[in-house]
Protein backbone atom coordinates (compact mmCIF):
# COMPACT_ATOMS: atom_id res chain seq x y z
CA UNK A 1 0.00 0.00 0.00
CA UNK A 2 1.29 3.44 -0.88
CA UNK A 3 0.71 5.25 2.39
CA UNK A 4 1.42 8.65 0.85
CA UNK A 5 -1.74 8.42 -1.25
CA UNK A 6 -3.92 6.72 1.37
CA UNK A 7 -6.81 8.19 3.30
CA UNK A 8 -6.78 6.44 6.67
CA UNK A 9 -9.29 6.41 9.51
CA UNK A 10 -7.54 5.82 12.85
CA UNK A 11 -9.79 5.04 15.80
CA UNK A 12 -8.52 5.96 19.24
CA UNK A 13 -6.49 8.85 17.77
CA UNK A 14 -6.73 11.00 20.90
CA UNK A 15 -3.72 9.42 22.59
CA UNK A 16 -1.29 6.55 22.93
CA UNK A 17 -0.70 4.27 19.98
CA UNK A 18 -3.62 5.73 17.99
CA UNK A 19 -2.17 9.23 18.23
CA UNK A 20 1.29 7.94 17.30
CA UNK A 21 -0.16 6.10 14.28
CA UNK A 22 -2.01 9.22 13.12
CA UNK A 23 1.13 11.32 13.54
CA UNK A 24 3.28 8.83 11.60
CA UNK A 25 0.67 8.58 8.83
CA UNK A 26 0.69 12.37 8.47
CA UNK A 27 4.48 12.36 8.32
CA UNK A 28 4.28 9.83 5.47
CA UNK A 29 1.86 11.98 3.50
CA UNK A 30 -1.44 10.24 4.21
CA UNK A 31 -4.74 12.00 4.69
CA UNK A 32 -5.85 11.11 8.21
CA UNK A 33 -9.22 10.99 9.92
CA UNK A 34 -8.69 10.75 13.66
CA UNK A 35 -11.66 9.30 15.50
CA UNK A 36 -12.43 9.58 19.18
CA UNK A 37 -15.41 9.91 21.49
CA UNK A 38 -14.22 13.44 22.18
CA UNK A 39 -12.72 14.64 18.87
CA UNK A 40 -12.03 18.09 20.35
CA UNK A 41 -9.23 16.42 22.32
CA UNK A 42 -7.36 15.31 19.19
CA UNK A 43 -4.50 17.79 19.06
CA UNK A 44 -2.66 16.86 15.86
CA UNK A 45 -2.58 19.58 13.19
CA UNK A 46 -3.64 18.11 9.86
CA UNK A 47 -5.83 15.36 11.30
CA UNK A 48 -9.51 15.58 10.41
CA UNK A 49 -11.03 14.89 13.83
CA UNK A 50 -14.35 13.06 13.84
CA UNK A 51 -16.62 11.77 16.60
CA UNK A 52 -16.80 8.00 16.97
CA UNK A 53 -17.90 5.68 19.75
CA UNK A 54 -17.06 2.22 18.40
CA UNK A 55 -19.63 0.66 20.75
CA UNK A 56 -22.54 2.57 19.19
CA UNK A 57 -23.92 1.46 15.82
CA UNK A 58 -25.34 4.92 15.05
CA UNK A 59 -21.99 6.54 15.83
CA UNK A 60 -20.17 4.04 13.61
CA UNK A 61 -22.60 4.69 10.75
CA UNK A 62 -22.20 8.47 11.11
CA UNK A 63 -18.39 8.21 11.13
CA UNK A 64 -18.46 5.92 8.09
CA UNK A 65 -20.56 8.47 6.24
CA UNK A 66 -18.30 11.35 7.24
CA UNK A 67 -15.12 9.50 6.25
CA UNK A 68 -16.49 7.70 3.19
CA UNK A 69 -13.34 8.41 1.15
CA UNK A 70 -11.29 6.23 3.53
CA UNK A 71 -9.05 3.67 1.87
CA UNK A 72 -7.72 2.06 5.07
CA UNK A 73 -8.89 1.60 8.66
CA UNK A 74 -6.69 1.21 11.71
CA UNK A 75 -9.07 0.14 14.44
CA UNK A 76 -7.15 0.99 17.57
CA UNK A 77 -9.90 2.20 19.92
CA UNK A 78 -10.09 0.94 23.46
CA UNK A 79 -7.87 0.45 26.45
CA UNK A 80 -5.20 -2.15 27.06
CA UNK A 81 -3.53 -3.28 30.25
CA UNK A 82 0.13 -2.36 30.09
CA UNK A 83 -0.35 -0.05 27.11
CA UNK A 84 2.70 1.35 25.36
CA UNK A 85 4.50 4.33 26.82
CA UNK A 86 4.65 7.34 24.50
CA UNK A 87 8.13 6.48 23.17
CA UNK A 88 7.16 2.87 22.48
CA UNK A 89 3.98 4.05 20.77
CA UNK A 90 6.00 6.02 18.24
CA UNK A 91 8.27 3.01 17.59
CA UNK A 92 5.29 0.69 17.28
CA UNK A 93 3.56 3.12 14.91
CA UNK A 94 6.61 3.27 12.63
CA UNK A 95 7.01 -0.52 12.63
CA UNK A 96 3.31 -1.00 11.94
CA UNK A 97 3.27 1.38 8.99
CA UNK A 98 6.52 -0.09 7.63
CA UNK A 99 4.81 -3.50 7.73
CA UNK A 100 1.71 -2.17 5.99
CA UNK A 101 3.80 -0.44 3.33
CA UNK A 102 5.73 -3.65 2.65
CA UNK A 103 2.51 -5.70 2.57
CA UNK A 104 3.60 -7.88 5.49
CA UNK A 105 1.15 -10.65 6.30
CA UNK A 106 1.84 -10.25 10.01
CA UNK A 107 3.23 -7.32 11.99
CA UNK A 108 4.75 -7.98 15.40
CA UNK A 109 6.23 -4.97 17.16
CA UNK A 110 6.83 -5.85 20.80
CA UNK A 111 8.49 -8.54 22.88
CA UNK A 112 5.25 -9.86 24.37
CA UNK A 113 3.73 -10.35 20.92
CA UNK A 114 6.93 -12.03 19.71
CA UNK A 115 6.70 -14.45 22.65
CA UNK A 116 3.05 -15.22 21.89
CA UNK A 117 3.95 -15.77 18.23
CA UNK A 118 6.77 -18.16 19.21
CA UNK A 119 4.49 -20.02 21.61
CA UNK A 120 1.81 -20.37 18.94
CA UNK A 121 4.32 -21.82 16.48
CA UNK A 122 5.14 -24.45 19.10
CA UNK A 123 1.56 -25.67 19.33
CA UNK A 124 -0.67 -26.14 22.35
CA UNK A 125 2.08 -27.76 24.44
CA UNK A 126 4.20 -24.61 24.19
CA UNK A 127 1.27 -22.40 25.18
CA UNK A 128 0.24 -24.57 28.15
CA UNK A 129 3.32 -26.48 29.36
CA UNK A 130 1.52 -27.31 32.63
CA UNK A 131 -0.79 -29.62 30.64
CA UNK A 132 2.10 -31.68 29.27
Question: What does the model show?
Answer:
The protein is 40% helix and 14% strand. 28% of the residues are buried. The protein is built from 5 helices and 4 strands. It is an alpha/beta fold and 132 residues long. It is globular, with a radius of gyration of 17 Å. Strand 1, helix 1 and strand 2 form a beta-alpha-beta unit. The mean pLDDT is 83. A 4-stranded parallel sheet has the order 3-2-1-4, sandwiched between helices. Helix 1 crosses helix 3. The N and C termini lie far apart (43 Å).
What structural keywords apply?
single chain, about 130 residues, alpha/beta
- What is the string of helix and strand elements? EHEEHEHHH
Helix content: 40-55%
Could you tell me the radius of gyration in angstroms? Answer: 17 Å
How far is the N terminus from the C terminus? Answer: 43 Å
In spatial order, strands of the major sheet run 3-2-1-4
- Which overall shape is indicated by the principal axes computed on the Cα atoms? globular
Amino acid sequence: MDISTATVLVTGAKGGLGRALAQELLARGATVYGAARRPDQIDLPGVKAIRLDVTGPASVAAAAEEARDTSALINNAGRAVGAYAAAKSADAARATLDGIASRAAEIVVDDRSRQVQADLSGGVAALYPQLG
